[in-house]
Amino acid sequence: MSEPRLELARKMGADIALNVSKRRIAEAQVELGMREGFDVGFEMSGNKNALPEMIDNLTHGGRVAMLGLPSESIEIDWSKVVTHMLTLKGIYGREMFETWAAMSSMLKSSEILRNRISSTITDRLPASSWREGFEIARAATGGKVVLDWTRI
């Protein structure tokens, strides 16, 4: 779990960005005054405890977007997934044209959104410094790394 990345999420306006290795999802639910569970969860850590705990704290019909790649197998209570009608969706790469067009429209329509998204970029390097960029990204201590192809 990366505290700097969780802090980036908080700065962007997330109600709670939770480090599941330190706090339970159920605690966050109580903190937010929720009684029936979360409608949507985004699992970005790859932590093996995050998904099962998220499943335990979703409302009926809840949805999970899986963006983090787990480093080991994750045990899932499939009876809970089925009986609570939960949807798990793996997301990897991009659905190029649809998501880019939607995001472009959103970014054009909101200066606040543009500023928040821009704040996730913590490093900008010339394309010739790609090795350094990959090292920074691998360290997982910051946000997004942008390689500038106009500065080669």
UniProtKB/TrEMBL annotation:
<dbReference type="InterPro" id="IPR036291">
    <property type="entry name" value="NAD(P)-bd_dom_sf"/>
</dbReference>
<feature type="domain" description="Alcohol dehydrogenase-like C-terminal">
    <location>
        <begin position="2"/>
        <end position="108"/>
    </location>
</feature>
<keyword id="KW-0560">Oxidoreductase</keyword>
<dbReference type="InterPro" id="IPR013149">
    <property type="entry name" value="ADH-like_C"/>
</dbReference>
<dbReference type="GO" id="GO:0016491">
    <property type="term" value="F:oxidoreductase activity"/>
</dbReference>
<protein>
    <submittedName>
        <fullName>Unannotated protein</fullName>
    </submittedName>
</protein>
<dbReference type="InterPro" id="IPR050129">
    <property type="entry name" value="Zn_alcohol_dh"/>
</dbReference>
<dbReference type="Pfam" id="PF00107">
    <property type="entry name" value="ADH_zinc_N"/>
</dbReference>
